[in-house]
Amino acid sequence: MTTQAPAEPLLQAFSDFLAQRIGLYFPPGRWPDMLHGLARAAPAFGFSTPEPCLRWLMSSELSRQQVEILASQLSVGETYFFREPAIFAALEKEILPPLIAARRTAGRQLRIWSAGCCTGEEPYSLAILLTRLIPDLADWSLSILGTDINPDFLAKAKHGLYSEWSFRAAPAWLKAQCFETPKADRYALVPRFKRLVNFDYLNLAEDAYPSVINNTNDVDIILCRNVLMYFEASAAAAVARKLHRSLVDGGYLIVSPTETSATIFPQFTTQPFPDAIVYRKTEAPSSPPAPPVVRAEAAPAHVVATAPPRLPLPETPPYDAALAAYAQGDYERVAALLVEQAGGDPLALALLARASANQGRLADAHRWCEAAVAADKVNPSLRYLLASVLDEQGLAAPAVTALKQALYLDQNFILAHYALGNLYRRLDNPTLAHRHFTHARKLLRQLPSGATLPDAEGLSAGRLGEIIDASEGLS
Ligand SMILES: C[S@@+](CC[C@H](N)C(=O)[O-])C[C@H]1O[C@@H](n2cnc3c(N)ncnc32)[C@H](O)[C@@H]1O
Fold first, then answer.
1. Residue 68 near ligand 1, beta carbon < 6 Å
2. 314 belongs to a structural domain
3. Which of 385, 362, 314, 372 is nearest to 338 (CA)?
4. What average pLDDT does the chain have?
């Protein structure tokens, strides 16, 4: 039986729907691919033909599981170790050495994010490279995060088992030095490299980032290669804006050479390397020079002015202007607007703390948080913010205290339970970790799945529940 393809307007509507929910762009020339993917996904949604499935999908909010099913069939999963050698050469010779030298005397911390990591070859290549460049890696706090929308890819990445095809452009030493002896033509990554990378689900088109919750804040280097080329232009530009905010000042965004675009990445400066271009987040560009002031000649006294006097425009209050600057990731402007004005205003102090933390200035962030807490001692959100900064500073015990204080002030503070669960897990206390995760889950069940959580940077109740389930091995 042949199934008739859905009519053009329906295909266009579905293509728009995918661009919005997943970011993926299917222009008319790629509709056959879109339909094939949909036909493969339809049985998982209980349909035998694409058209009713397509109508049904567009008629409701998609759950994460449904997005995953669609993404599994529609996304392109091409990747391999040390892909685009020029980029890895730039990382090895130009980008990482000065960064490592600077961090060696300032906290020994590095955060790398492979966004759209597919089956893991990219973040593992970074882990291997960093191991070669940092001989005392055990004394460093290194975070390498790999995220993707496709759960099958993530499962394979976590497994760390690869076939010959993943090595098609790899340097000769790679297999011998970093993989175990192959069994049945499969190469298993040696555990000491595998341990360096954490994998998580993240939909670049929809999920919240930067966020301390999913480790996507204060990142030094983001690789988002061969991902945005499949995105619709406005969705790609929206991702670029958010990735910009996820970086520390001076941080790098690396896309594939074919993806560089002045319209999609206007907020970055470009830095050329031999055969590679990378983007850099530099200080906020200074505002364009003001147009020359044309001074009206002073009117002679006898001339009667005909135009009514202009009323002064109301000025935006500094806190509101700072909030707008924060939303655009212009943290320097937040400081310029508020440092002199904040006084004892806890909201302004908290915004200064967030802006400093997002720039990686943790000592300043800590100072602003303490001031905010002193200004409003019964505000649990401020204690939570303080705990996040303390945790970023590697001060786990004071972070636990601040979270307990937040929970003392509001025992139903879901995010504080979640953060405390994470901290206890890291402090090797699985019993207390589980207790707080369970409590968070119980509170989340009382909320509609789409409800946005306070202090959670846009994260929904349903999504946090999924994150907790995944971290406790329940999904
Ligand atoms: C071609 S692979 C690139 C892998 C790797 N970055 C590289 O360059 O070798 C593209 C990856 O982007 C992922 N992807 C597509 N849409 C995504 C989205 N909305 N959020 C996160 N990942 C997405 C796909 O699942 C796929 O794994």
1. no
2. no
3. 372
4. 86
